[in-house]
């Protein structure tokens, strides 16, 4: 799916950016401007970093945020402006729930459908 790949690629760049921003990477980027992200990662063994729990959690959080942002844009076009309360409920969803909402919203005809969907998630938080 194109959207997922784009979100993952963007999240990978964000995660790498975090490590570059807060580590020695800033110097490396300026010293080696001709190197790609992959070449810098290989040079400093950042591929092992991707296996860490911290990296995986950051990746998951990034994917969830990107998913929420996309779902909110789609909902605004599909059912109109979303209230801050509903937006907060959507932002609190897990990644799996956000993905399920992305599919479900295609059948929504109004805000009532969104409210019903969110209510069902509250009744069965593990179900998507």
Essential attributes:
128 residues, mainly alpha, 2 domains
Explain what this protein looks like in three dimensions.
The protein is mainly α and 128 residues long. It has 2 domains: 51 residues, no CATH class; 66 residues, no CATH class. 76% of the residues lie in helices and 0% in strands. It has 8 helices and no strands. Helix 1 packs across helix 5 and helix 5 packs parallel to helix 7. The chain is elongated, with a radius of gyration of 18 Å. It starts with a helix and ends in a 5-residue tail after the last helix.
Q: Could you say which overall geometry the principal axes of the C-alpha atoms support? A: elongated
Note the main sheet. none
Structural class given helices, strands, pairing? mainly alpha
Order of helices and strands, N to C?
HHHHHHHH
Total separate domains: 2
Q: Which radius of gyration do the C-alpha atoms yield?
A: 18 Å
Count of helix runs: 8
Mean pLDDT: 80
Fraction of residues in helices? over 70%
Q: Whole-Å distance between the termini?
A: 19 Å
Strand content: under 5%
What's the total number of strands? 0
Q: Unreliable segments (pLDDT under 50, ≥5 consecutive)?
A: none
């Amino acid at each position: 799916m194109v959207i997922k790949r784009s979100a993952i690629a963007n999240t990978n760049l964000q995660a790498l950016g975090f490590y570059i921003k807060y580590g020695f990477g800033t110097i490396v980027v300026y010293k080696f401007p001709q190197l790609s992200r992959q070449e810098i990662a290989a040079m400093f063994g950042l591929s092992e970093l991707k296996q860490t729990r911290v990296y995986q959690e950051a990746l998951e959080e990034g994917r969830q945020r990107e998913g929420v942002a996309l779902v909110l844009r789609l909902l605004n076009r599909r059912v109109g402006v979303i209230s801050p309360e509903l937006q907060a409920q959507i932002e609190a969803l897990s990644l799996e729930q956000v993905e399920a909402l992305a599919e479900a919203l295609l059948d929504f005809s109004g805000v009532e459908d969104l409210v019903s969907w969110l209510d069902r998630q509250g009744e069965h938080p593990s179900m998507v």
